Amino acid sequence: MTYTGYTTPPGGSGPVAWQMGLSSAGLAQIDFAEAAGSLAALGHPVRLQLLQAIYEGTSTVAELGKDERFGTSGQIYHHVHALAGAGWLESARRGHWRVPAQRVVPLLTLVLIGTH
Question: Mind telling me which residue stretches traverse the membrane in this protein (predicted)?
Fold first, then answer.
């Protein structure tokens, strides 16, 4: 099984390419439960909206706080840290967040799966 992707995120510095592949034997070795933490971090609508906003170029909690959908700055920090802990966000520089390049295509793939 192989999946791959190539895209240029809005506001990104350039294109992102990604490919993952495993043989049937490799797939048989996967413990599905290991995905629970990573997938659980995406299991909240506000977190997905935050990820979308950050993917689209909003990078600070102050900017995110201007959107009422995200709640208070404390709630935003809670969600951002949960997403960062699961590897869906990283600190680009102090106070600025981004979706790591290696997570862009997997994130978009999961969103497509969840919406189609």
Answer: none
Cα distance between the two ends of the chain: 20
DSSP-assigned letters across all residues of 26-41: HHHT--GGGGHHHHHH
- Give the pLDDT confidence of 21-79 residue by residue, as tens digits: 889 998 899 999 999 999 999 999 999 999 999 999 999 999 999 999 999 999 999 99
| Domains of the chain with bracketed CATH | 33-115 (1.10.10.10)
Burial of 115 (0-12, 13-18, 19+ CB in 10 A): exposed
Cα three-residue angle 16-99-36, rounded to 5 degrees: 110
Rounded (10°) CA dihedral 10, 13, 19, 20: -80
Compute how many other C-beta atoms are within 10 angstroms of the C-beta atom of residue 79.
Answer: 23
